[in-house]
Design a protein that fits this description.
8 helices; 7-stranded parallel beta sheet; alpha/beta; 4-stranded antiparallel beta sheet; about 270 residues
Length: about 270
C-alpha cells in the first residue's frame, strides 16, 4: 500500500443510494459492463466510517464526489472540505435531474457550471473526471479548466448494453450500462492524447495536469498513457481479477524507467505528443 501515490473512494453522493436492481455486472471479452448505480452510504456516513480507515493508510486520500443536482454537489463539497481528504475528484458523468437526466459532463456549459459551483465550495484541490461519451471531450476539458479545475481525470466508463438471448430482453434494468476494462484502453488513450494535445496548445501557465484512466492493467498500459501526456494514472477494474495489479504496474514502470534512463515520470510524460 505504501507504494501507491493515492487511493480514491467510490462515487459518493450527499444522500445514501441503494444502487440499481437486477443484474449489475456482466463480463464481456476483455471487459466488464457494470450497472451498480452509484451505490454508496452517503457522504456523512463515509466521513464517519470509511474515511478514517483511508486516512490511516500512507497514500493520498481522494474523495470521488457524485450527485444529481448542483446543490447536492455543493453541499457534498462543503462537507468534504471540513475533512482531511487531500483532493476531491468531481464525477460529472452523473445525470442532471433538472436537465431531463442528461449527464453534466455531456455539455460544456453544464460541466463548467457544476465545476464552478463546487470550486467555490471548497479550497481543496479539485480534479474533474470526464465522461468519454461527450461528443466533444476537448471542449468539456477546457470548459472545466476555465471554471476552476486543478486537474482532469479521464475517462469514465463507455456507455454499453447487453442482451439476454434466452429471454430476448436487455440484460440490465436500465438497458444501458458502463463498459470498463482492457477493451476500452485504446479508446481512452486516444481521448487522453487529444486532451493533452489541446492543453499543450495553451500557454504553459494555463495548462492543468491530466490523469489517465481506462483499461490500465499492466505497466505497459500505464507507460502508454504517460507517454501520451498523462501525469498520473488510475487503476480500477484490473484489481477485481488481480488485486496486486497496481503494485506490479509500479514495479514494471520502475524497471522500464531504469532501462530507458528516465529519472522521473516527467522525463517521459508526453514524449509521444507530436
Amino acid at each position: 500500500m505504501e507504494k501507491l501515490g493515492g487511493i480514491c473512494s467510490k462515487g459518493l453522493t450527499l444522500e445514501e443510494k441503494a444502487g440499481n436492481g437486477g443484474v449489475r455486472l456482466s463480463e464481456t471479452p476483455s471487459g466488464l459492463i457494470n450497472s451498480i448505480g452509484l451505490e454508496n452510504p452517503g457522504i456523512e456516513h463515509f466521513i464517519s466510517h470509511q474515511l478514517p480507515v483511508m486516512l490511516s493508510l500512507k497514500p493520498v486520500t481522494i474523495a470521488n464526489l457524485s450527485g444529481s443536482s448542483v446543490e447536492g454537489y455543493v453541499r457534498g463539497a462543503e462537507l468534504l472540505d471540513k475533512t482531511d481528504v487531500k483532493m476531491i475528484e468531481l464525477n460529472i458523468s452523473c445525470p442532471n435531474v433538472k436537465a431531463g437526466g442528461m449527464a453534466f459532463g455531456l455539455d460544456a456549459e453544464a460541466a463548467a457550471g457544476v465545476t464552478k459551483a463546487v470550486r467555490a465550495a471548497t479550497k481543496k484541490p479539485l480534479m474533474v473526471k470526464l465522461s468519454p461519451n461527450a461528443p466533444y471531450p476537448i471542449e468539456i476539458a477546457l470548459a472545466v479548466k476555465d471554471a476552476g479545475a486543478d486537474a482532469i481525470s479521464l475517462v469514465n466508463t463507455f456507455q454499453a448494453a447487453a442482451i439476454d438471448i434466452e429471454t430476448g430482453k436487455p440484460l440490465f434494468d436500465n438497458i444501458r450500462a458502463g463498459l470498463c476494462g482492457p477493451a476500452i484502453k485504446p479508446l481512452a488513450l486516444r481521448i487522453v492524447y487529444d486532451v493533452v494535445q489541446a492543453m499543450n496548445c495553451l500557454p504553459e501557465n494555463e495548462r492543468i495536469p491530466v490523469v489517465g484512466i481506462g483499461g490500465i492493467a499492466t505497466w505497459q498500459d500505464a507507460a502508454e498513457f504517460i507517454l501520451a501526456g498523462a501525469s498520473a494514472v488510475e487503476v480500477g477494474a484490473a484489481t477485481f481479477s488481480h488485486p496486486n495489479a497496481m503494485l506490479e504496474i509500479i514495479d514494471g514502470l520502475r524497471s522500464y524507467m531504469e532501462r530507458k534512463g528516465f529519472r522521473t515520470i516527467a522525463d517521459f510524460c508526453g514524449l509521444a505528443q507530436v
